Amino acid sequence: MKKITIKNPLDMHLHLRDEQMLKVVAPLSSQNFSGAIIMPNLVPPVTSIKELKNYKNRIKKAIGDDNFKPYMTLFFKDSYDYKFLKKAKKHITAIKLYPAGITTNSEGGVDNLDVESLKMTLDAMSELKIPLLVHGESDGFVMDRESEFAVVYETLAVSFPKLKIVMEHITTKTSADLLDKFPNLYATITLHHLYLILDDVAGGMLKPHLFCKPIAKRYEDRDALLNLALNAHPKVMFGSDSAPHPVDKKESCGCAAGVFTAPIALQALAQLFEQNKKLKNLQKFVSDNAIHIYEIKPRKKEITLVKKDYKVPSSYGDVVPMFAGESLSWSLEE
Ligand code: NCD
Ligand code: ZN
After folding, report:
1. In this structure, which ligand is nearest to the CA of 201?
2. How far is CA 182 from each of CA 186, 235, 248, rounded to the nearest angstrom?
3. What range does the domain containing 145 cover?
4. Residues 6+ apart with CB under 8 A from 50
5. Among candidates 41, 37, 25, 21, which has minimal Cα distance to 240?
6. How many Cα atoms occupy the beta-carbon half-sphere of 116 within 13 Å?
7. Is the pLDDT of residue 1 over 90?
8. Is the CB–ligand 1 distance for residue 250 below 6 Å?
């Protein structure tokens, strides 16, 4: 049987939530991955070292003995100064910036993206070598939000040349093209944006479990993402943006944004890379590139996938995953 072993798989953008949801979803990542960048958009968001340490402890409790490292992040505030960040540095891997109100639990995000208002914090982050992770969407027309944000990425990249900036969950050719223009811009790409275009979400009957921010875009956008991921462009990393919501928040009037992919991500990536005859690049996309970009030493862990049909469960607790009830052509080795 055809097999592939991935060394130290990493998920560079993950929502683990809290309380009961954390208990359900954390083991589904910690079993399959060596580590993950943990998003700070709890309610309220993680903005102090104390909250961050407590959250990390709750994550550790939820994953039990699994060999998995949570790489913690703070929720960006333009009031973080050098003194605070110097103390925070040993507890965090990065800081995540959300424009205010742009996605799930981002109400406390940044109102003003001017360089002047961000300067104190971003200068300190540059000096302390703390990467900035960005949810890059404007508040414009939904299909144009990410392309409209390109000017912000360009301005940040030029104004803070020593700052590593990760464009999170890119969905457009416009963002893909920025990677080769600015040395300090990097990107994560999700599983679902490699599979979906807008038509899969809203072209027929509406699919709430495929609704997320940023929304899936056009064929040419997906092609640009596939080109980066399948060829393991060195500035691109896998970040699932696995974002669980309880079924009643998804199948409702006012559907929450987020696609839940953590437990099926490696299987679905193996399927996609094999179909495109690029299986040899999967290791770079789900681990090596991230290790170089973030300069981290991940926990040692090997995950073997086998070419054997895997029927995706219809739910995990009260969360419905992508591909629920469907078959994938790769499974995790038992
Ligand atoms: C994420 C969530 O649910 O926390 N939702 C999403 O649609 N991706 C937030 C985010 O990453 O935008
Ligand atoms: Zn996210």
Report:
1. 1
2. 9, 11, 42
3. 9-261
4. none
5. 37
6. 0
7. no
8. no
3-state secondary structure of 310: strand
- For ligand 1, whether the C-beta of 103 sits within 6 Å is yes
Q: How confident is the model at residue 246 (pLDDT cuts 50, 70, 90)?
A: very high
Asked whether residue 328 is domain-assigned, the answer is no
H/E stretch holding 202 reads: helix 198-202
Closest C-alpha among 38, 33, 43, 45 to residue 14: 38
Residue 241 a catalytic site member: yes
- Digit-coded pLDDT (tens) for 98-141: 999 999 999 999 999 999 999 999 999 999 999 999 999 999 99
pTM (predicted TM-score): 0.98
> Which tokens sit at 167?
């464009």
For the CA atoms of 42, 47, 53, 59, the dihedral, rounded to the nearest 10 degrees, stands at: 20
Q: Which among 18, 241, 309, 318 is annotated as catalytic?
A: 241
- Asked if residue 251 is part of any domain, the answer here is yes
Cβ-based burial of 58 (10 A; exposed 0-12, middle 13-18, buried ≥19): middle
* Ligand 1 atom 4, closest CA: 104
Does any domain span residue 101? yes
Q: Let me know if residue 302 belongs to a domain.
A: no
**CATH number of the domain to which 235 belongs:** 3.20.20.140
Q: How many domains does the chain have?
A: 1
| Residue 66 burial (10 A CB sphere; 0-12, 13-18, 19+) | middle
